[in-house]
Design goal:
Elements: E1 10-13, H1 23-33, E2 37-41, H2 57-67, E3 70-75, H3 88-108, E4 112-115, H4 128-149, E5 152-156, H5 166-176, E6 182-186, H6 187-192, H7 197-204, E7 208-213, H8 236-243, E8 249-251, H9 258-271
Parallel strand pairs: 1-2, 1-8, 2-3, 3-4, 4-5, 5-6, 6-7, 7-8
Helix pairs in contact: 1-2, 3-4, 7-8
């Protein structure tokens, strides 16, 4: 009888714990619960450069070494930051913060940095070419540091970004011309904007680094527990197999009762055909 827990097929994002549990404690609890990897949110009081105790990168690295849990990626407060802002000072602050995030990723051994491509004013946006210019300038600055630190930059599809869809992101990256930039594809984000996640995954397959899973509807943007929205999760595993996706998927569920809701989500998704991890590098 297979006694492998459903959690073993998934990584866990720590968004739900940013106010309540420092990152090193999250590493230990995720390992104890049986998850195969972790995506750590970089957030003051949770994980931050120079922070003391369990919120500091050194403590997180120790926890990862002790538990042998894989540090898959780091993510940050993408709603607060904006590398495509009209205000130069905002772009400069965002880039300094992201450079700090790259250093943290390197210190703890995380493979990917999740990058938000930037936001436009929804009422009176800058011309697209200007927004792309700001994004490209940001990549010019961030990529050398990321390469030096052994961290890969992966752009995520975000509804509030000026590049919300799979096609938007791929066209922008093609125009920039750097083959080493990846994509983290968020199934809930795609569903919310009316994009078919299966079609988006097929488009992204050449750059796809990681898949985020949570639930939402198309009328209210959420990262809810599985079953609280109307995402068609059952359609996704066959597409992941079709495109040769070989990593564990990442549960990015935001909840006030995260331990239970994330574990229940893992069980529901495993029953729909997600996992076990697709290969020996799953979660790495």
């Amino acid at each position: 009888m297979n006694r492998t827990p459903p959690t073993a097929s998934f990584g866990i994002n720590t968004y739900s714990y940013t106010f309540s549990r420092p990152a090193a404690a999250c590493v230990r609890s995720a390992a104890e619960a049986g998850y195969c990897g972790i995506e750590l949110m970089i957030y003051p009081g949770h994980l931050w450069e120079g922070a003391p105790g369990d919120a500091g990168p050194a403590a997180v690295r120790r926890a990862l070494e002790e538990t042998e849990l894989a540090a898959v990626s780091v993510n940050g407060p993408n709603i607060d930051l904006n590398i495509a802002a009209a205000v130069e000072e905002m772009r400069a602050y965002s880039l300094r913060t992201l450079e700090s995030h790259i250093r943290i990723a390197s210190e703890i051994g995380a493979r990917f940095l999740v990058l938000g491509p930037g936001k436009a004013n929804p009422l009176f946006p800058l011309d697209r070419e200007i927004l792309l210019g700001h994004l490209f300038a940001a990549l010019d600055r961030l990529l050398p540091l990321a390469d030096h630190c052994g961290v890969k930059i992966s752009v995520e599809n975000m509804p509030f970004a000026f590049l919300p869809s799979a096609t938007d992101i791929l066209d922008a990256l093609a125009a920039y011309g750097h083959p080493g930039i990846g994509v983290i594809y968020d199934v809930a984000n795609a569903h919310f904007i009316g994009e078919d996640p299966c079609a988006g995954l097929r488009l992204m397959q050449q750059r796809l680094d990681l898949v985020h899973l949570s639930d939402t509807t198309r009328t209210l943007y959420r990262h809810d527990p599985i079953g609280m929205g109307d995402v068609d999760f059952a359609a996704v595993p066959p597409v992941l197999a079709e495109i040769g996706y070989d990593r564990a998927t990442m549960l990015e569920i935001i909840s006030r009762r995260p331990d239970d809701d994330i574990a229940e989500g893992a069980a529901r998704l495993a029953a729909m055909g997600f996992g076990p991890p697709y290969g020996p590098d799953a979660g790495a």
